[in-house]
Amino acid sequence: MTDPASHPSPGAPLLSLRGVNKSFGAVQVLRDVDLDVYLGQVTALVGDNGAGKSTLIKGVAGIHAFDGGEFLFEGHPVKVTGPKQANDLGIEVVYQDLALCDNLDVVHNMFLGREMKRGITLDETTMEQRARETLSGLSVRTLKSVRQTVASLSGGQRQTVAIARAVLWNSKLVILDEPTAALGVAQTEQVLALVRRLADKGLAVILISHNMNDVFQVADNIAALYLGQMAAQVKAADVSHGQVVELITAGRSGDLGIQKAVVTA
Description:
- By secondary structure, the protein is an alpha/beta fold.
- It is built from 8 helices and 14 strands.
- The chain has helices at residues 53-60, 83-89, 106-110, 124-137, 155-167, 185-200, 212-218, 241-250, and strands at 15-24, 27-37, 42-47, 68-73, 76-77, 91-94, 117-118, 121-122, 173-177, 204-208, 221-226, 229-235, 252-253, 256-257.
- Strands 6-9-10-3-11-12 form a 6-stranded mixed beta sheet, sandwiched between helices.
- Strand 4 and strand 5 form a beta hairpin.
- Helix 5 (155-167) packs parallel to helix 6.
Protein backbone atom coordinates (compact mmCIF):
# COMPACT_ATOMS: atom_id res chain seq x y z
CA MET A 1 0.00 0.00 0.00
CA THR A 2 1.27 3.48 -0.76
CA ASP A 3 2.18 5.80 2.08
CA PRO A 4 -0.44 8.60 2.10
CA ALA A 5 2.04 10.95 3.75
CA SER A 6 4.25 10.76 0.66
CA HIS A 7 1.53 12.13 -1.59
CA PRO A 8 0.10 15.59 -0.86
CA SER A 9 -3.61 16.17 -0.53
CA PRO A 10 -5.07 16.70 -3.99
CA GLY A 11 -6.55 19.93 -5.22
CA ALA A 12 -9.35 19.97 -7.76
CA PRO A 13 -9.66 16.72 -9.73
CA LEU A 14 -8.28 16.60 -13.26
CA LEU A 15 -11.24 14.43 -14.33
CA SER A 16 -14.59 14.58 -12.64
CA LEU A 17 -17.63 12.58 -13.72
CA ARG A 18 -20.99 13.34 -12.15
CA GLY A 19 -24.08 11.21 -12.63
CA VAL A 20 -22.98 9.67 -15.93
CA ASN A 21 -25.24 7.09 -17.53
CA LYS A 22 -24.87 4.72 -20.44
CA SER A 23 -27.33 2.27 -21.98
CA PHE A 24 -27.10 -0.12 -24.88
CA GLY A 25 -30.64 -0.67 -26.05
CA ALA A 26 -32.74 -1.72 -23.06
CA VAL A 27 -29.67 -2.55 -20.94
CA GLN A 28 -28.47 0.22 -18.64
CA VAL A 29 -24.78 -0.40 -18.06
CA LEU A 30 -23.90 2.72 -16.03
CA ARG A 31 -26.24 4.39 -13.56
CA ASP A 32 -25.47 7.83 -12.12
CA VAL A 33 -21.75 7.13 -11.75
CA ASP A 34 -19.48 9.68 -10.02
CA LEU A 35 -15.69 9.51 -10.33
CA ASP A 36 -12.81 11.84 -9.43
CA VAL A 37 -9.26 11.41 -10.75
CA TYR A 38 -6.36 13.53 -9.53
CA LEU A 39 -3.01 14.53 -10.95
CA GLY A 40 -0.14 12.76 -9.23
CA GLN A 41 -2.31 9.90 -8.06
CA VAL A 42 -3.18 6.36 -9.13
CA THR A 43 -6.91 5.70 -9.02
CA ALA A 44 -7.67 1.98 -9.12
CA LEU A 45 -10.95 1.16 -10.85
CA VAL A 46 -12.16 -2.21 -9.61
CA GLY A 47 -15.29 -4.29 -10.08
CA ASP A 48 -16.48 -7.73 -11.05
CA ASN A 49 -16.97 -8.77 -14.68
CA GLY A 50 -19.98 -6.88 -16.01
CA ALA A 51 -19.74 -4.12 -13.40
CA GLY A 52 -19.27 -1.46 -16.10
CA LYS A 53 -15.53 -0.76 -15.90
CA SER A 54 -14.88 -1.07 -19.63
CA THR A 55 -17.93 0.99 -20.54
CA LEU A 56 -16.91 3.74 -18.12
CA ILE A 57 -13.40 3.90 -19.53
CA LYS A 58 -14.62 3.83 -23.12
CA GLY A 59 -16.87 6.76 -22.27
CA VAL A 60 -13.89 8.72 -20.93
CA ALA A 61 -11.88 7.74 -24.02
CA GLY A 62 -14.64 8.87 -26.40
CA ILE A 63 -15.40 5.44 -27.83
CA HIS A 64 -18.92 5.33 -26.36
CA ALA A 65 -20.30 8.78 -25.55
CA PHE A 66 -22.17 8.96 -22.25
CA ASP A 67 -25.95 9.32 -22.51
CA GLY A 68 -26.10 11.88 -19.73
CA GLY A 69 -24.32 13.39 -16.76
CA GLU A 70 -21.42 15.81 -16.41
CA PHE A 71 -17.91 15.27 -17.82
CA LEU A 72 -15.50 17.82 -16.34
CA PHE A 73 -11.84 18.02 -17.33
CA GLU A 74 -9.52 20.49 -15.63
CA GLY A 75 -12.60 21.99 -14.04
CA HIS A 76 -14.39 22.69 -17.32
CA PRO A 77 -17.37 20.82 -18.79
CA VAL A 78 -16.43 19.00 -21.97
CA LYS A 79 -18.27 16.80 -24.46
CA VAL A 80 -16.14 13.91 -25.66
CA THR A 81 -17.74 12.14 -28.60
CA GLY A 82 -14.68 10.56 -30.18
CA PRO A 83 -11.17 9.29 -29.35
CA LYS A 84 -9.48 12.26 -31.04
CA GLN A 85 -11.26 14.68 -28.71
CA ALA A 86 -10.09 12.63 -25.73
CA ASN A 87 -6.52 12.59 -27.08
CA ASP A 88 -6.63 16.36 -27.63
CA LEU A 89 -7.53 16.80 -23.95
CA GLY A 90 -4.54 14.66 -22.95
CA ILE A 91 -6.32 11.36 -22.31
CA GLU A 92 -4.51 8.22 -23.46
CA VAL A 93 -5.61 4.59 -22.99
CA VAL A 94 -3.43 1.47 -22.95
CA TYR A 95 -5.81 -1.40 -23.68
CA GLN A 96 -5.19 -4.98 -22.64
CA ASP A 97 -4.30 -6.08 -26.19
CA LEU A 98 -1.66 -3.26 -26.34
CA ALA A 99 -2.24 -2.76 -30.11
CA LEU A 100 1.44 -3.17 -30.93
CA CYS A 101 2.83 -4.35 -34.28
CA ASP A 102 5.25 -7.25 -33.85
CA ASN A 103 7.07 -6.57 -37.12
CA LEU A 104 7.92 -2.95 -36.22
CA ASP A 105 10.61 -1.74 -33.84
CA VAL A 106 10.02 0.16 -30.58
CA VAL A 107 10.35 3.59 -32.19
CA HIS A 108 7.85 2.91 -34.96
CA ASN A 109 5.40 1.39 -32.48
CA MET A 110 5.61 4.44 -30.22
CA PHE A 111 4.87 6.73 -33.17
CA LEU A 112 2.39 4.41 -34.91
CA GLY A 113 -0.25 6.55 -36.63
CA ARG A 114 1.47 9.75 -35.49
CA GLU A 115 4.71 9.50 -37.42
CA MET A 116 6.93 12.58 -37.67
CA LYS A 117 8.03 13.59 -41.14
CA ARG A 118 10.71 15.72 -42.72
CA GLY A 119 9.34 16.60 -46.10
CA ILE A 120 7.98 13.39 -47.60
CA THR A 121 10.19 11.04 -45.57
CA LEU A 122 9.96 9.88 -41.97
CA ASP A 123 12.07 11.87 -39.51
CA GLU A 124 13.73 8.78 -38.04
CA THR A 125 16.34 10.74 -36.07
CA THR A 126 13.85 12.89 -34.19
CA MET A 127 11.48 9.99 -33.53
CA GLU A 128 14.29 7.86 -32.14
CA GLN A 129 15.52 10.73 -29.95
CA ARG A 130 12.04 11.38 -28.54
CA ALA A 131 11.48 7.67 -27.94
CA ARG A 132 14.78 7.42 -26.04
CA GLU A 133 13.99 10.55 -24.00
CA THR A 134 10.54 9.27 -23.07
CA LEU A 135 11.82 5.86 -21.99
CA SER A 136 14.70 7.47 -20.08
CA GLY A 137 12.30 9.87 -18.36
CA LEU A 138 10.30 6.88 -17.14
CA SER A 139 13.52 5.22 -15.90
CA VAL A 140 13.02 2.30 -18.27
CA ARG A 141 16.22 0.26 -18.41
CA THR A 142 14.94 -3.13 -19.53
CA LEU A 143 15.15 -2.44 -23.29
CA LYS A 144 18.47 -3.15 -25.01
CA SER A 145 17.65 -0.96 -27.99
CA VAL A 146 14.77 1.19 -29.24
CA ARG A 147 15.39 -0.46 -32.62
CA GLN A 148 14.43 -3.93 -31.35
CA THR A 149 11.38 -5.38 -33.01
CA VAL A 150 8.41 -5.79 -30.66
CA ALA A 151 8.34 -9.50 -31.59
CA SER A 152 11.60 -9.94 -29.67
CA LEU A 153 10.30 -8.35 -26.44
CA SER A 154 8.95 -10.00 -23.31
CA GLY A 155 5.43 -9.34 -22.07
CA GLY A 156 6.65 -6.82 -19.53
CA GLN A 157 8.74 -5.00 -22.12
CA ARG A 158 5.75 -4.83 -24.49
CA GLN A 159 3.64 -3.32 -21.73
CA THR A 160 6.41 -0.79 -21.08
CA VAL A 161 6.47 0.24 -24.75
CA ALA A 162 2.69 0.66 -24.81
CA ILE A 163 2.77 2.80 -21.66
CA ALA A 164 5.66 4.90 -22.97
CA ARG A 165 3.71 5.47 -26.19
CA ALA A 166 0.80 6.76 -24.12
CA VAL A 167 2.91 9.35 -22.28
CA LEU A 168 4.79 10.49 -25.39
CA TRP A 169 2.00 12.86 -26.43
CA ASN A 170 1.89 15.34 -23.54
CA SER A 171 -0.77 13.24 -21.87
CA LYS A 172 -2.32 14.26 -18.56
CA LEU A 173 -4.41 11.17 -17.86
CA VAL A 174 -3.21 7.64 -18.65
CA ILE A 175 -5.70 4.77 -18.37
CA LEU A 176 -4.24 1.28 -18.03
CA ASP A 177 -6.49 -1.73 -18.64
CA GLU A 178 -5.24 -4.77 -16.68
CA PRO A 179 -1.55 -4.03 -17.42
CA THR A 180 -0.24 -7.00 -15.40
CA ALA A 181 -2.86 -9.61 -16.37
CA ALA A 182 -0.56 -11.82 -18.46
CA LEU A 183 2.75 -11.15 -16.71
CA GLY A 184 4.96 -13.14 -14.37
CA VAL A 185 6.01 -11.94 -10.93
CA ALA A 186 9.19 -10.09 -11.94
CA GLN A 187 7.58 -8.43 -14.97
CA THR A 188 4.56 -7.43 -12.86
CA GLU A 189 6.86 -5.67 -10.39
CA GLN A 190 8.53 -3.77 -13.24
CA VAL A 191 5.21 -2.61 -14.68
CA LEU A 192 3.79 -1.62 -11.28
CA ALA A 193 6.93 0.41 -10.59
CA LEU A 194 6.39 2.17 -13.91
CA VAL A 195 2.73 2.85 -13.05
CA ARG A 196 3.83 4.44 -9.78
CA ARG A 197 6.45 6.55 -11.58
CA LEU A 198 3.79 7.92 -13.94
CA ALA A 199 1.87 9.32 -10.96
CA ASP A 200 5.01 10.51 -9.20
CA LYS A 201 5.85 12.51 -12.33
CA GLY A 202 2.53 14.33 -11.97
CA LEU A 203 0.27 12.41 -14.34
CA ALA A 204 -3.17 11.16 -13.36
CA VAL A 205 -3.46 7.39 -13.71
CA ILE A 206 -6.51 5.13 -13.79
CA LEU A 207 -5.54 1.50 -13.18
CA ILE A 208 -8.11 -1.17 -14.01
CA SER A 209 -7.24 -4.37 -12.19
CA HIS A 210 -8.71 -7.52 -10.69
CA ASN A 211 -5.56 -8.11 -8.64
CA MET A 212 -6.02 -6.63 -5.16
CA ASN A 213 -2.33 -7.03 -4.34
CA ASP A 214 -1.44 -4.86 -7.34
CA VAL A 215 -4.13 -2.34 -6.38
CA PHE A 216 -2.92 -1.92 -2.82
CA GLN A 217 0.70 -1.78 -3.93
CA VAL A 218 0.33 1.29 -6.16
CA ALA A 219 -3.10 2.92 -5.73
CA ASP A 220 -3.73 6.14 -3.82
CA ASN A 221 -7.48 5.68 -4.00
CA ILE A 222 -9.89 2.99 -5.10
CA ALA A 223 -13.16 3.33 -7.01
CA ALA A 224 -15.35 0.22 -6.80
CA LEU A 225 -18.11 -0.37 -9.34
CA TYR A 226 -21.00 -2.72 -8.60
CA LEU A 227 -23.61 -3.57 -11.26
CA GLY A 228 -23.12 -0.27 -13.05
CA GLN A 229 -23.12 1.89 -9.92
CA MET A 230 -20.21 3.43 -8.06
CA ALA A 231 -20.32 1.64 -4.73
CA ALA A 232 -17.63 3.87 -3.24
CA GLN A 233 -14.49 5.82 -4.01
CA VAL A 234 -12.14 5.76 -1.04
CA LYS A 235 -8.50 6.33 -0.10
CA ALA A 236 -6.58 3.08 -0.32
CA ALA A 237 -5.12 3.72 3.12
CA ASP A 238 -8.62 3.86 4.66
CA VAL A 239 -9.88 0.42 3.62
CA SER A 240 -8.81 -3.18 3.93
CA HIS A 241 -8.48 -5.84 1.24
CA GLY A 242 -11.64 -7.49 2.60
CA GLN A 243 -13.67 -4.29 2.48
CA VAL A 244 -12.80 -3.74 -1.17
CA VAL A 245 -13.77 -7.33 -2.01
CA GLU A 246 -17.13 -6.77 -0.28
CA LEU A 247 -17.69 -3.55 -2.27
CA ILE A 248 -16.95 -5.44 -5.49
CA THR A 249 -19.12 -8.46 -4.70
CA ALA A 250 -21.99 -6.92 -2.72
CA GLY A 251 -21.82 -3.19 -3.38
CA ARG A 252 -21.35 -2.38 0.28
CA SER A 253 -19.17 -3.08 3.30
CA GLY A 254 -20.71 -2.08 6.61
CA ASP A 255 -21.61 1.61 6.38
CA LEU A 256 -19.53 1.99 3.21
CA GLY A 257 -21.05 1.64 -0.24
CA ILE A 258 -24.54 1.52 -1.71
CA GLN A 259 -27.08 1.73 1.07
CA LYS A 260 -30.32 -0.19 1.01
CA ALA A 261 -33.39 1.88 0.22
CA VAL A 262 -35.56 2.64 3.22
CA VAL A 263 -39.05 1.27 2.68
CA THR A 264 -41.83 3.25 4.35
CA ALA A 265 -45.32 2.02 4.95
